[in-house]
User: What shape does this take?
Amino acid sequence: MSALLEVDGLTVHHGQLAAVVSVDLSVEQGETLAVIGANGAGKSTLLRTIAGVLRPTTGTIRLAGRDVTRLPAHRRVAEGISLVPEGRRLFESLTVEENLLTGEYRGRPGPWTPARVMELFEWMGPRRRQVSAQLSGGEQQAVAIGRALVANPRLLLLDELSLGLAPIVVRQIYQRLPEIISSGTTVLLVEQDVAQAMRVAGRVQCLLEGRTVLAGRPAELALADVERAYFGLRTGSDPPGDRAESAPAGPAQARPASAPTDDQAVAQPSGAVEGTAS
Amino acid sequence: MNWLNALVQGILLGGLYALFACGLSLMFGVMRIVNLAHGDFAVLAAFGAYLVISSTPLGTLAATVVVIPLFALLGYVLQRGLIQRALTVGPLSTLLVTFGLSIIIQNLLLQAFSADTRSLPAGSLASASLRLSGQISVSYLAVLTFALAVVVLLGLQGFLSRTALGRMLRATSDDREAASLVGADTRHVYAVATAIAFATVALAGLLFAMRSSFDPSIGPTRLLFAFEAVVIGGLGSLWGTLVGGMVLGLAQTLGAQIDPALTLLGGHLIFLAVLAFRPQGLIAARSG
Assistant: This one.
């Protein structure tokens, strides 16, 4: 059986910097794959390239066997790829309902409609006429997910859902994910929050400085290995503090919110230990 | 009684200014483009209609019906072929490109039509008038212009808030990349915005030309009125544009009532006062 998404030897440059280096990746129909990695590992670049916002230097991207490497982002929506971008990126002068409706513009027919999204997130219905700029971060994230769902994507790309949100809000949003997956959507998500990613994903792939350093099913991965891959601690000779200097911070990765979420990310692998032990 | 007359005429004149300014406002609101050739395109439309009327048996109304769709098409092509390229280079280059267009249009018109002033025949529409009371009468053309302005603004409002393409226009204005991520070909969306702007500027240009005379070099002067109406009303708000147009029209007719030499000065003074004391405009734009 062939995969829904096949990425082959993908290399993406931000100017001189190679943010993603010959990454291979495949996602089966109905599967959830999480790409994890520290800040600046190239996760967002990878996702944005799959969505068509960025152009790869080399490599191919195939959706259900069809080569979409050269398609612009707006044409990939009709093919069935929708990205929930990092930082949510709602249309701020549009209402909640109008934001959801934009998902229908070039979307595919399917089970997801603005009404169905409002059932998934119960608070949305009564507040549908509210301008989205007035929503809290977590609410905006929910609308951003809804907007992507309304296009009925075959492949849903989620970029750093947890970024800049309180842990409890992150948990609430991730609680909705199984319902989305059970509707038949294949999910490729990118996360710094390893515990959250390991909990929802069928498979994880860890990036370090643009390369795949570890891949496997969450249950089969030793947490020490994940930690080593995540922070790039090779055979214990590199002190952990080196990570900040060695991680390439390309223009796309240089974001103001990186400082607080970094602390959160550092704390997460230990959370993952508790998560699987229980 | 003369003051009341000036008041009525000023408000009606404001409709024309609003119609003229809404295209400028739309292009700035959606694409952050200041079209410095806006006034010249209005004049170009007038000459286009003049050419149609003088070389075919068609009348002014038929010429209007021909010129407006052609202008919408011109706007679409110009956006895709020229302005879009300038946009990708940077915001300053769109200023240079539209400034260049302004000069090119003026000189081509001068070459083709000479510097003579002309006007479009409006028949009984311009000469007949509606007598409201003893001393106040308004021309049918002025009433029609105001009504058209309101209809166009209402239509534009409806298009932006109720249709999928209109919604995408607002979405693209908020966040261009996010709009492409929900499937909008933003170059097409931009070209549609320009096409609408060009259709409205053509309509305004034709109404201007029926009301008063025009020559190839009058574009920049007209552009100033559009800028003033937009700034007085508030950038990015359609109804603000109507209010701005009316305030500008009133300032001009009331100024003229004091002394005919004050016509333009009255408008400029109001414009400066708004810039100094309420730079966001009388009606602030939508939030965000």
User: Anything to note?
Assistant: The two ends of chain B are 44 Å apart (CA to CA). Chain B touches chain A at residues 164, 167-168, 170-171, 173-175, 177-186, 286-288 (CB under 8 Å). Residues 174 and 285 of chain B are 13 Å apart (CA to CA).
